[in-house]
Design goal:
The chain has two domains: 5-250, Nucleotidyltransferase, domain 5; 258-437 and 469-504, Nucleotidyltransferase, domain 5. Helices cover 34% and strands 23% of the residues. The chain starts with a strand and ends in a 7-residue tail after the last helix. The strands form seven sheets. Strands 17-18-16-15-21-22-23 form a seven-stranded mixed beta sheet, sandwiched between helices. By secondary structure, it is an alpha+beta fold. The model has no long low-confidence stretch (mean pLDDT 94). It has 16 helices and 23 strands. The longest helix has 27 residues, at 377-403.
Amino acid sequence: MKEKFILALDQGTTSSRAIVFDKKGSIIAKAQNEFEQIYPKAGWVEHDPLNILYSQLNSITTVLRSGKFKAEDIAGIGITNQRETTILWDRTTGKPVYNAIVWQCRRTADLCEKIKEDTELCDYIKAHTGLIVDAYFSATKIKWIIDNVPGVKALAQAGQLLFGTVETWLIWNLSGGRVHVTDYSNASRTMLFDVDKLCWDEYLCEKLGVPMNILPTPVPSSEVYGKVASGIIGLEELEGVPICGAIGDQPSALFGQACFESGMSKNTYGTGCFLLMNTGEKRVESKNNLLTGVAWSLGGKTTYSIEGSAFNAGSVIKWLRDEVQLVDSPKRCDELAELVDDANGCYLVPAFTGLGAPYWDMYARGCIVGLTRGVNRKHICRAVLESITYQMTDLLEAMKDDSGIEIGELRVDGGASVSNIMMQIQANMAQTKVNRPKTVETTALGAAYLAGLAVGVWENLDDIEANREVDRVFEPVMSMEERNKYYDGWKKAVTRAMSWEEKE
């Protein structure tokens, strides 16, 4: 039987990738295109939706030209994406009505503060969506565009406006405007979706000023949604290929890491850091400001997760390279950090766009504390790497408390997980094993697996689990006493960063 491949589209915050996987989960071909980050004001982050689309299409055409496989052997397409990022477009023209408002964007912080004044509404949101009120999520971004962009409200009233997170936008365009869907995991991040009933919440849409006629149809993570349309330039060879998997980037990594059992956890070190634990078919209520929602829905069963995030992780290393210009590459940051035993009492809190779980401080801002005359470039690099691991330790502690589960192993992935020194620091801080697979492209792999299950490339979860290969396991080598000393310093530093920005 002829070998079949799966094309995974991994649409991230700073770039769009296309990766072709074989049945073993090995990468056959991949391509990546970065796109512009737009910062209109302090704390605002936008993308041009057309740039997102074109960068993704360019990545696809590049892998199609690679010569490493035939387009006719692509059995299906799976999509994973930055989740809360919000796009509104005209149903007739297909043109966006405004730039995509990115998940990192804090422009609706004041609106969220007003919502928080209604404690009953906040309790309802947490009970039904698994989220807390924050500018992070899509609902207030939608409202901001409708209220502030001329003509958008009229489009909505005329039934001509469509909303989608990024996978919705890509599916709509790839299907030639025929399919308007969102998977349950992405819907879970809008603050409008009832994660128990798996449907849009009419009451919340009314209260938050979001017209229900603009919302996509919620669907499971693995099924055929539609097919690639004819006439898409560069994708002619893919016409008719099923679009059959969709999942948000972080639950996709959980799936790609084969965390199929309740209690299994992964952390993705990307632009931000995202820690997720599989809680099975039961949704866990968090006491520590963590988020709960749908991880995936497969074969009629819905799997839930508990999640915490750090808004800035890999972006801190990028800041060190691009803005501060202390290093010319992430590798150089590692090399310098390895030359010292610690950060010499220095702590960096990367609250560039506020703090996520468990603090949820929209008004926190970044700071460096503990500076002395003896702190040099090597210590700053070390502090940057440590800041990422401290944020994850905050989340791990909260997750253990919520779930009552001791985490015996943390599976890791994402671009920054290639840093051996950071993974060792993480093992020390978490006081648990850190398990890194040979394939760190687990976000794309998760989407590929879900698409492949829909079209029979993989039969079941056992097939997928058998594919996972371990690259390295990092064991803690620091005493608990020493670990606590460093960690206490971090918590002290966080207090200095909190509530820095004045509320308007």
